[in-house]
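Is nicotinamide-adenine-dinucleotide placement plausible here? Inputs below.
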Amino acid sequence: MGRVEGKVALVTGAARGMGASHAVTLAREGADLVIFDCPGELPTVPYGLGTREELDQVAAEVEKLGRRAVVVEGDVRSQADLDRAVETAISEFGRLDQLVANAGIWTLAPSWEMSDDQWQETIDVNLTGTWHSVKAVFPHMRERETGSIVLISSINGIEGLPGAINYCAAKFGVLGVMKTTAMEGGPFNIRCNAILPGFISTPIHKWQGAYDFLAGKPGGTDADRLAAAPYYGVLKGRGPLDPVNVSNAVLYLLSDEAKDVTGIELPIDAGHTALPHFNPAPVQ
Ligand SMILES: NC(=O)c1ccc[n+]([C@@H]2O[C@H](COP(=O)([O-])OP(=O)(O)OC[C@H]3O[C@@H](n4cnc5c(N)ncnc54)[C@H](O)[C@@H]3O)[C@@H](O)[C@H]2O)c1
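Reply from A.M.:
I modeled the complex. Tokens:
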């Protein structure tokens, strides 16, 4: 018996990275899936996003595990796209039990140089897209008086990140969405929790601007990304963390093992939050 045996889950941003890992982990533990991704190009995002081929590959991996995965192409900025994903779950599986609101983007610029478009696009995807995802599933879960929702925030949902004011504002906001949904959902036995990933190995920071950011100078490389990762945690021998460790936390929070858990923020960060706070760039 899997830990989410017979459940139906919607995972956004499922074409690759953590979302793909969440989908496969849930399938391994007995869930059927609606996997949602492929928003097309976003003008302020300087790296490529998930593709239909990747999404189909995730579906194939799920099917190999003996579960079903239905692919829905869409953009979390669009309420209509997410409503269509929920309708698809209901028509294909008869219901939807779980949501993982995982889709997200990361762009970089000092706040005084950031354009309105760059601010807005990240807010629209990471914050509004998360609310849209909750809004799409809530009426169905409310009607059935059961449901479990996990929102993917970030360590940057509880601390600042110079160079990513748009991302931090959105991820702090996700925690507001989580806590409010936990309160509004409680009377209907709908649980809502958030995960705060630390430094996880995914394509989101495999592009030149991210390498430069992590190197602290232009001309950064992937080696700089790998070298930076251990400074984000306290545990021995960790580089960028394996997405499956975040997926295992998603699995726990979605499952009945966490049936008395709602409204929490769970860091998966190799101990980042245990670090003493210090100023890395003091002005003398
Ligand atoms: N990787 C990390 O270190 C890290 C740390 C903290 C939080 N996160 C968060 O984890 C989540 C997953 O990120 P990841 O690291 O796997 O990145 P990723 O770039 O590998 O995957 C993100 C996926 O989301 C999809 N996506 C982006 N915008 C979308 C939209 N508008 N509509 C539908 N799908 C969209 C992309 O196509 C992509 O497949 C994000 O919310 C991210 O902010 C990542």
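Short version: The mean pLDDT is 97.
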